Amino acid sequence: MEARFLQENQPQVYAQLKKSIKHGRIAHAYLFEGDKGTGKHEASIWLAKRLFCTNAQGDEDPCNTCSNCQRITQGEHPDVLLIEPDGQTIKVDQIRQLQEEFTKSGFEGRRKIFILSQAEKMNTSAANSLLKFLEEPVGNFLAILETESVGRILPTIQSRCQMIHFSPLSKEILQKKLQDEGLSKETSRLLSYLTNSYHKAVEISQNEWFNETKDAVVRWLDYLLKKDPQAFIFVQKRLLSQAKEKSQQIEVFSLLLFYLQEERDRLLMQGSWGKEINRAIESALQAQKKLQANVAFQGVAEQFCVKIIYGDPRQPEKRV
């Protein structure tokens, strides 16, 4: 369960937490920071289970079979509380309710644990209330804050927590996890190129716009590689309506870059130099930068077509 995920994906975090437990050096507050899907919540649950497990000793993993472990898995343990955003934010009333709960002694033991999911979504009042709680702790408790954006956590809160960084998943691990979910090898490679978050990759793969745009970009690239002027018409008839928002337009060139690199790798495996593909990749990167600088998408895409089909007039071919 959680232990296996951490062993495979966050071995340093796993080893650090086990060492802390073995030597009795558990902090009173942790800040788990890293991208979505990197194992922050798995680590929170693993730590809670290990501290309440009635069978584990030393640096052993929680058993996952005792009453405490099972109730934590099911979210039903009275001394392990999970706080999540109420709508778009974590509100001050949620923190106050937590404080009231923690003024009581643990229902079944001396320790209470609370896990604050998406801690960066605390509003100002909630953050200040939590800070006071951490500065003036009541009873024996462990606080675990999970965040994808540590910069949005008050520095004063950060200073009162032991920060643990969760590294992005390696592309190889992410690809394997996605293939295990039934995605094709090519799609898994594409998604691991676009994101290093497993949950984000799954979300993207299920997005209708993404799948339609991926097919459109493959068709556009086919015109470009054949140096077919239909590429210009395709920009006007398909891509302009497909990518109306700036973020979508940038995504079009991200997809294009992936397929260009795939084509370059294919040529290299065949022993070809792929000089034109390298130029196309460079031009696609330049186009993406222009879009990020708010240059109009149609002009950028059509100029890219000119470079690929007719060559860059600023870089004339050298005569041998």
Write structural notes for this entry:
The structure is a single chain. The chain is α/β, with parallel strands linked by helices and 320 residues long. Helix content is 57%, strand content 8%. The chain has 15 helices and 5 strands. A 5-stranded parallel β-sheet has the order 2-3-4-1-5, sandwiched between helices. α11 crosses α13. The C terminus is likely disordered.
Topology:
Layout: H1 2-9, H2 11-22, E1 29-34, H3 40-52, H4 67-73, E2 80-83, H5 92-102, E3 112-116, H6 124-135, E4 141-147, H7 155-158, E5 162-166, H8 171-180, H9 185-194, H10 198-205, H11 208-225, H12 230-242, H13 246-269, H14 275-292, H15 297-310
Parallel strand pairs: 1-4, 1-5, 2-3, 3-4
Question: Notable features of this structure?
Answer:
15 helices, five-stranded parallel sheet, alpha/beta, elongated, 320 residues, 5 strands
Q: Assess the beta-strand content as a share of residues.
A: 5-15%
Pattern of helices and strands:
HHEHHEHEHEHEHHHHHHHH
Mean pLDDT: 90
SS class: alpha/beta
* Helical content (DSSP H or I, runs of 4+): 55-70%
Q: Based on DSSP secondary structure assignment, what is the total number of beta strands?
A: 5
Summarize the structure.
57% of the residues lie in helices and 8% in strands. It has 320 residues and is of the alpha/beta class.
